[in-house]
């Protein structure tokens, strides 16, 4: 397991299948490629699992305070090892307004140095600036310890 990219490094590009709730109802499944977000600030929110207590707390906090991310023009991408079907059910239950991406083979988790035995991925945040450079990195434990939207927005607000 590698240590992955650090602050100041270009964020490794990837493409993963994912799903997002449509404003008009239903869901949209498609592939998401990180480099297609160049020119935008991106929050990569890696989490261990759909429907788990800690991850539900984290992602619902992001949902309930989504205006913090919108206020700094940031795109949130949730990433975990579950498949798109699981993500779609979780979005339906929780009403997330951001896409959830499926890293079922844990290749992106390994690329970012956050793959973990048993749970598959460490709860981690990478903030990527408009040039695709990582400006903040945080890896926690499997416990429900995560950075709040307000603290992340504070960092994002200073990025180009």
Write up what this structure looks like.
Helices cover 26% and strands 28% of the residues. It has 160 residues and is of the alpha+beta class. The chain has one domain (15-156): Glutaredoxin, CATH 3.40.30. Strand 4 (74-80), helix 3 (84-94) and strand 5 form a beta-alpha-beta unit.
Task: Characterize this entry briefly.
With 160 residues, the protein is an alpha+beta fold.
Radius of gyration: 14 Å
Largest sheet: spatial strand order: 2-1-5-4-3-8-9
Top CATH class: Alpha Beta
Instruction: Give the helices and strands as they follow along the chain.
Output: EEEHHEHEHEEEEH
Question: Using DSSP, what is the number of strands?
Answer: 9
Quaternary structure annotation: single chain
CATH topology: Glutaredoxin
How much helix is in the residues? 25-40%
Instruction: State the major sheet.
Output: 7 strands, mixed
Q: Please count the helical segments.
A: 5
Could you report the average pLDDT, rounded to the nearest whole number?
91
Record the SSE blueprint:
Layout: E1 15-21, E2 27-33, E3 41-46, H1 53-64, H2 66-71, E4 74-80, H3 84-94, E5 100-102, H4 107-111, E6 115-116, E7 120-121, E8 124-128, E9 134-139, H5 149-156
Parallel strand pairs: 3-4, 4-5
Antiparallel strand pairs: 1-2, 1-5, 3-8, 6-7, 8-9
Structure keywords:
160 residues; alpha+beta; Glutaredoxin; seven-stranded mixed sheet; 5 helices; 28% strand
């Amino acid at each position: 397991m590698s240590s992955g990219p650090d602050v100041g490094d270009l964020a490794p590009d990837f493409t993963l299948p994912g799903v997002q709730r449509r404003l008009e109802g239903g869901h949209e499944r498609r592939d998401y490629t990180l480099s297609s977000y160049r020119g935008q600030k991106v929050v990569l929110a890696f989490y261990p699992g759909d429907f788990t207590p800690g991850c539900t707390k984290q992602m619902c906090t992001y949902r309930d305070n989504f205006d913090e991310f919108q206020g700094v023009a940031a795109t949130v991408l949730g990433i975990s090892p579950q498949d798109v079907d699981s993500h779609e059910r979780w979005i339906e239950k929780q009403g997330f307004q951001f896409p959830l991406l499926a890293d079922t083979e844990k290749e992106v988790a390994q690329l970012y140095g956050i793959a973990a035995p048993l749970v598959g991925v460490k709860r981690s945040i990478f903030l990527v600036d408009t040039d695709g450079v990582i400006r903040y990195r945080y890896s926690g434990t499997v416990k429900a310890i995560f950075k709040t939207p307000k603290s992340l927005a504070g960092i994002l607000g200073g990025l180009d």
